[in-house]
Amino acid sequence: MIAWFSILPHLILAAGGFSIFCLGAFWRPRSAGVLSGLALIAVFLAGAGVFLTTPEEPQFLGMLEVQGYGRFFTVLIIVITGLTLLFSHQYTKIRNIAGDEFYGLILLAALGMIFVADAVHWLTFFLGLEVLSISLYVLIAMRQADPGSNEAAVKYFIVGAVSSAFLTFGIAIIYAAAGTLSIPQSLVIDVPSGGISLIFLGLSLLLVGIGFKISVVPFHLWTPDVYQGAPAPVTAFLSTGSKAALFAALLRFASYSSDELWLYLTPVLWVGAVLTMGVGTISALAQIRVKRLLAYSSVAQMGYLLMTLLAVKQEGASAIMFYLPVYALMDLGAFGSVALLSAEKADLDALDDYCGLAYVHPWRSAILAISLISLAGLPPTAGFIGKFTLFWAVLQSRYVVIAIIGIIMAILSIYFYFRVVVALFMRPAEATISIPSVALTDRFAGGVILFFLLLLGLVPSPVFTIIEQILPLRGIP
Amino acid sequence: MFPWLSLILFLPLVGSFLALGLWRRPLACRWASLLVALVDFALVAGLFSLNLKGQAGPTGRWLLAEDFPWIERFGIRYSLGLDGISLMLILLTAFLTVLCVLVSWKQITQRVGAFHFFLMFMETGVLGVFLATDLFLFYLFWEFQLIPMFFLIGMWGHENRVYATIKFIIYTIVGSLLMLAALIGLYVIHGAQTGQYTFALYQLVHTKLSPAAEIWLYAAFLLAFVIKIPLIPVHSWLPDAHTEAPTAGSVILAGLLLKTGAYAVLRFAFPLFPSAALVSVPLLLALGLGGLFYAAWIALAQRDLKRLVAYSSIAHMGLVVIGIGVWNIMTVSGAVLQMINHGLTTSALFILVGMLDERVHTREMDNFGGLWAKMPIFSAFFLLFSMASLGLPGLNNFVGEILILIGTFGKWPWVSGIGFAGLVLTVIYILWFVQSTLFGETRNPQIKERHLEDITAREAAILMPLAAAVLFIGLYPGPLLTLFREPIQGLMALFK
Global pTM? Predict the structure, then answer.
């Protein structure tokens, strides 16, 4: 008897995606309202499905983990998808890109993300990653008439293909070394002398593949171009959902891996974290385009998370699990409000065009400003508690030098985050741009983000309680 | 016990959202903010009538204290404590906020709702810094006050406001983020030693630190605080921020933000790291004296009235740092008193310059002179507060300065001597400031021909209480010094 109930959210998302495709194919009117409503309902049901079912087994057929950790990230990805759909409703309708492919692919991408976050088997992991990537290739190219959008899609496709190649080869080598495709077992195997180097090689290739996806320097070069070219809600989805999912997987691998293996990886990770924070922050300083600036900012944010991954054997895991939802909210808020502030033809991008917008559109600008203040890590926002938690975990594990480097980068990052705030609030408008009015869905999404950014900044305890119940993450029960 | 402190702390926050909600009706915004600020001031003043006595509670000896768990994961608590020092400082805060609403009545005409939102938001931040006894809570408020200030300068400031506000935020963030790292470091070390992870000040003061660790942690804390004070050589944000800020912004900066820096040195940096603090005393004294002379020297070269007052702030705060650095009862009492005094006199001078600016739209000294004939009452106030600022006996600053310098003489006679010489320089530039503004011929022919309105009833309502406070402290400082004695003795006891 297969416990299908334990993967109810996954099934609902898949069914939702396919029914939207079917409607698109056989139902002439293809009303955008109905399609987006259907997608929202599917996401809502999937979310309800997580809370309604209590799986008895921790794993589903040895493929997916459906308790604790997996459920935490399933909920996170469902929330991200829901907010993305809310932000896209009006955006896609005005720009005439609302169709079955957009909403169906968003649901499928979400399914892929959940697979990646839940996977305890290398095949599910790879499958999830491919579902996620292929959906995103199309989503990025959604604005077919826009050369920038197409360029971004091609870039993301090539990078994605290369990273898949690395991943497949890495998984193959790990399989060769460990003799099993189960993730926990392959990472804690009792390695014979000489064996460690093979599994280390496999893991390194795997990390390169993941590194591409979460924009670890030096594999980050695609990030600004793709973020800039993709439609803003898709960028929001890409920068939060896919990063959260892959980081969840990375955290899982790190927690499962034996201490011996981990010891080998630490120096690589140290250098990678410093480079990612440094290059992300310093490149962002010079940007004059907001989407590129936010792209580099997300690179830098990944750097902070990688730094914290060093401490995974102590308190790092709980810090990362707190920061990922916070990061998702902040980036969704930032890219979402960019979408709301964009004119019909192209997304609002040049920093000069943001000047004085706060006086015309105070609420949208306030969401952007508060998201940026949160990304900068200032109280009373969730970003502050998040940053505090990260640095606490790192210092707790006595990584003092990298913590100081991180602090210096955080100081530098204040400058570029506040440059956008200054443009919005303190510079006179240069030209008036006509920006479409917001729909109810946008207001709702913006309100939710604002509310949780402030709530988690003041009352973070409930989230920590949940995380404490989930951790520690054990490989083999 | 009724949570008076929380009420005082969060009432302005409620007021800020009230003001934001009324943004369509500017006048209602002003009245609502004024009302909230007055009620808050009345509440603080009402604390005196409670006849508070210092009581030893779970978090130390306080007149009033509150303590609740907040983020249990990290042992962070919401704990507030009030002693004589913080009582006077929150009284000053509540008082100056009322004045800020009043001085902005005519000056701020754009985006009134948002202005009052940030102003009241700011008050909560400053009050929090003076009341928090949990280091995490303190840090939260410490950063919390940055954002409203950033917007106050950047949205309602003068021509160069964007440059000034970015400079302000970068300077302060450099200090405070390094302090955050040190704070977490101290927390981790304390937790590893005792097994109890906490940010409570009364527990962290007992942490045993290796000399090297102590020096580094202390340096990070001190840097954050001296940037706010500001001490040379990290003062350069101050003249820009003060000059570009609207009058209310300058009043808050000079009257309150600078005080949070000095207060934090007194409350946190010295007690947490006593041996490192003792090592740093000569450096602090040298920088304090340096600030006194340097700022006086630069002030003599200023043409902009606001900039001149800003530099006088650096000089006065240099003296406060000397008072804290010498660390005996007399000098620390003097330093705390001087913090209050500086808050009153410098705010008054900024308000007066702001009033001039409102009338003639310039702050260039070359345009003025001969104001005494045109606006006698205004000029009388101007003279009074200038005299207070240069330390005329009988007015408030004199008491603080004399306490600091006499207290210093015992252990550091040279410092005291040089300090007195520095005060002479202060006399020179303040007299020059007064002379070129009030007396002689009006140099700008346009202003000379114009009729300038003397102070209005609203302006009198701002200046009278300030003048009364200046005279009161100058003539009868006893009650304040009594209030400070117990907490300062408590601080001294930590060093034995």
Answer: 0.93
